[in-house]
Every structure is written in C-alpha cells, then in structure tokens.
Amino acid sequence: MAMLYSEKVMDHFANPRNVGELENADAVGEVGNAVCGDIMKIYLKIDDDIITDVKFKTFGCGAAIATSSMATELIRGKSVKDALTLTNKAVIEALDGLPPAKIHCSVLAEEAVKKAIADYYTKTGREIDFDLGCDGHCDSCGTKHA
After folding, report:
1. Coil, strand, or helix at residue 44?
2. Is 46 helix (H, G, I), strand (E, B) or coil?
3. DSSP letter, residue 34
4. Of the residues 36, 61, 134, 138, which is catalytic?
5. C or N: which end of the chain has fewer Cβ atoms within 10 Å?
6. 61 is catalytic
C-alpha cells in the first residue's frame, strides 16, 4: 500500500530547513521512538525569551525529517511561551497532512521542542510547569505507538 505525502511534506523532506547543530546552544531537546527508530534533536538559541535560531538533526524516515523541519520553521522568532503551544496537529496542518501511520513523527517533533524548552528552563532556574508529552514508555500512559 503506497503512502501519499503532500507536496509540502515532500518539499521539507527533500529541502529540509534549519538542519544542523548550533554551537553553544542555549537549549537542546532530544527524543526518540524505539518502535520506529526515529531520533530527533533540536537546538535552540534564545535571547530575551525569543527563539532567535533553531536547528535540528533527525535520524529517521522522510516524515520525521519533514516534521522536524516544519517544527523549526513554526517556532523560529517566537517567544518561548508561544513555542510551548506548538502541537503535533499544527505541524500536520502546516504540512497539509500526514498519512495516519506517520502521525507519530509529528508527535516527536512537538516533544523535541518541549524537551528543548524544558532544558532551557532548567538552565535558567525556572520551574518546568508544562507537560513534556509521552516519555516513550508505553506502559506509563497506555499509548500504543504504531
């Protein structure tokens, strides 16, 4: 069965934005999904609570790369507080949809952003007052990752 990807997914896979590492990043978030093998790492440069630069490195399928790329585009220039409101649904909508079997890639992108912001909060002595999402241990929340 062939999966159909939108033109935006194909574009972000073929020409991903913001790939790489940031030297002296203010925050780094890394997440992985043991079931599919995708690993995402997001680096943030933050000045006065504004995300001034963002890079990512993703090991995974085309949808994982596309969702990472889109997530970085959606949070660049935003306040840390605004970036925390990023949802996997927003990433999916910005990419004009994802096949059902690839929705978990958008969840990883959201979680990588939140992990990076949690790292920033820790480094700046702030309390992490938001949910980090799934920790990948299916027994803790009962979610089945496909």
Report:
1. strand
2. strand
3. T
4. 36
5. N
6. no
Q: If you search the block for the tokens 């690839």, which residue do you land on?
A: 102
State pTM to two decimals: 0.87
Give backbone dihedrals phi and psi of 44, rounded to 5 degrees, phi first.
Answer: -125, 140
Q: What is the mean pLDDT of the chain?
A: 89
Name the residue among 133, 130, 33 with its Cα closest to residue 84.
130
Which range has the worst mean pLDDT, 34-38, 71-75, 130-134? Answer: 130-134
DSSP codes, 9-32:
HHHHHHS-SSBS--TT-SEEEEEE
CATH of range 16-124; options 3.10.20.600, 3.30.70.1400, 3.90.1010.10, 3.40.50.720:
3.90.1010.10
User: Residue ranges per domain, the chain?
Assistant: 16-124
- Quick: pLDDT tens for 69-103: 999 999 999 999 999 999 999 999 999 999 999 99
- Name the active-site residue from 105, 134, 138, 141: 105
Q: What percent of the chain has pLDDT over 70?
A: 88
Residue 36 known to be catalytic: yes
